[in-house]
Design goal:
By secondary structure, this protein is of the alpha/beta class. It has a single domain (2-160), classed as HUPs (Rossmann fold), CATH 3.40.50. Helix content is 34%, strand content 16%. The protein has a six-stranded parallel sheet with strand order 3-2-1-4-5-6, with helices on both faces. Helix 2 (52-63) packs antiparallel against helix 7. The model has no long low-confidence stretch (mean pLDDT 92).
């Protein structure tokens, strides 16, 4: 089974994340997408970042209706700060019968050469890239690389920051969130201050 790992803080998860994840699993050879909720880095102070378990709950609620998209809290159990290369090694050890691939936006591919042990990631894993409107060029070594696959997904210009700001300013942002995510945020009064 081939699984795409889609990492994010998902603060909060929105329809853009779901559009990308669903497109990747339906229009590539991936069997499932795991939405890996990135834990709060204890060394970074970020007041707007919801607690890990709340963000996992939001991803769980958002993905309930998508049998090929699953929430994952695998990074919650790993020492912090954590690097993708360590998560990939850990998850491959825990699930030896599954093949794990990395999903990233084109913006991340442009800075991929700066990632810790990126050569090792590329040696052991395929990378599926979705388009983003960004500045700068992709490093020559990543162009036409046999393990880097561009997926012609829709470009989604929705951000979690936009949603948090919209809630704080009392704007109607319901269309940008799945119903269950909106209900949880509203019920818990998240991002209102």
């Amino acid at each position: 089974m081939k699984i795409g790992l889609y990492f994010g803080t998902f603060n909060p998860i929105h329809v853009g994340h779901l559009i990308i994840a669903n497109h990747m699993v339906e229009h590539s050879d991936l069997d499932e997408i795991w939405m890996v909720v990135t834990p709060h880095n204890p060394f970074k102070k970020k007041n707007s970042l919801l607690d890990n378990n709340h963000r996992f709950e939001l991803v769980y609620r958002a993905t309930e209706g998508y049998p090929k998209i699953k929430p994952s809290d695998i990074e919650f159990k790993l020492p912090q700060p954590n690097y993708t290369v360590y998560t990939l090694a850990h998850i491959s050890e825990v699930f030896p019968n599954k093949e794990f691939c990395l999903i990233m936006g084109e913006d991340n591919l442009k800075s991929f050469h700066k990632w810790k042990n990126y050569e090792s990631i590329l040696e052991h894993h395929h990378i599926y890239v979705y388009p983003r409107i960004t500045e700068g060029d992709i490093e020559h070594q990543f162009k036409n690389h046999p393990k880097i696959h561009k997926v012609d997904a829709p470009i989604v210009q929705i951000s979690s920051t936009m949603i948090r700001n919209g809630i704080k300013e009392n704007k109607n942002i319901k269309p940008l969130l799945s119903k269950k995510v909106w209900e949880y945020l509203d019920e818990m009064n998240f991002y209102k201050k």
